Amino acid sequence: MGNRLSKIVTRTGDSGTTGLGDGSRVGKDSPRIDTLGELDELNSAIGVLLAETLPEPCGSKIRECLLTVQNHLFDLGGEICIPGHNSISEEHVTLLEGWAEQYNADLPPLKEFILPGGTRPAALAHLSRTICRRAERSIVHLGHNEAVSVHARQYLNRLSDLLFVLGRTLNRAGDGKGDILWNNPRNR
């Protein structure tokens, strides 16, 4: 494969349009480009999380998991960039479900809502989760007018679940205190 990004400054987007993977051009404010931007932001937020030292005994496994997710998000971006192309399959969704179940099995049941925070890695997992939810809303919005695969939507839904569980796992491993519970007004 040749150099795909040999020239970065092209000036082709100066008019407010951008090229898709199939060669067509769309407005930079189109739902498809919004979705691509949300996926890029999500992948970048996960990258910031991965720049942290993740606590053991789970840190190295979480790192492997999130690196796989970053690659999947690039694949999903390719799917959105090329109308009609499918990259995300049921197997991708099932993998996320398995990880979420695996990490959740070691956590105490939730009896109250939790606050996003605690250790820095956990807080970054929660931030990534909220960006993932926004990307999910964006892909649903795109699907109102253009074809979007069911697996693409499911992937983002499962990924936000996984990021929630990873936030809890990282809090528990990081300082041993675990979740930061919401102070329900009924209990104040």
Automatic annotation (TrEMBL):
Family: Belongs to the Cob(I)alamin adenosyltransferase family.
Gene3D superfamilies cross-referenced by the UniProt entry: Cobalamin adenosyltransferase-like
Region ranges (Disordered): 1-29
Enzyme Commission no: 2.5.1.-
Reactions performed catalytically: 2 cob(II)alamin + AH2 + 2 ATP = 2 adenosylcob(III)alamin + 2 triphosphate + A + 2 H(+)
Keywords linked to the UniProt accession: ATP-binding, Cobalamin biosynthesis, Nucleotide-binding, Transferase
Pfam family, one: Cob_adeno_trans
Single GO biological process annotation from the record: cobalamin biosynthetic process
NCBIfam families (alphabetical): PduO_Nterm
Assembly: Homotrimer.
SUPFAM superfamilies listed in its UniProt record: Cobalamin adenosyltransferase-like (SSF89028)
Name listed for the protein in its UniProt record: Cobalamin adenosyltransferase
Organism encoding this protein: Fluviibacter phosphoraccumulans
Keyword Transferase attributed: yes
Gene Ontology MF: a single term: corrinoid adenosyltransferase activity
